[in-house]
Amino acid sequence: MSKSWKSCVAVYAITAAIALPVVGWATLVDAAPGGNSANAHACQKGGWQTLQTATGDSFTNQGACVSYGAHGGIPFSPSVTLTLSCDTDLHSLVITVAAFGFHPNILGGSETLIHDGHPQVSTNQVLLDANGNANPADQVIVTVNHDASALVTSKFADAAGVHASATPLRNVDLGQCAA
Question: Which of 3, 14, 58, 140 falls between 20 and 30 A from 21, CA-CA?
């Protein structure tokens, strides 16, 4: 019986000697800093194609984006929207530009173009809020007393270079708010 007891102890000792380094190695891999951060995950499944670096550069491929995020880089996904409304007191069309997903607490600027045969350009500078948003970033008031159709475009960039363009509004009736 003593021989069998010694055999069991020997088997347990060998198993422990083999298992301990493997378990220890797995724990170190799981605890590695950086790794697959949320920023790196944002780059997967085509996300890298719409993201930008903190300076507004695009990524050449998913691997570049994942590496950027895994090393602490914050990818940006900025957007710009255009909305139309009427100012009944002025009988004017109001084009509102809003910007989201930029650097927080820095200056940004918008440029809005109205293409109607007599192009109008509006530029505006605004301080982005603590979330990197500007709503509104610009308001363009268009007073037109005749029917005119226009293409309205807008782009926005923050002082660090992160940028985005709004989806163009086509065939906008500039006279829709006239008295």
Answer: 3
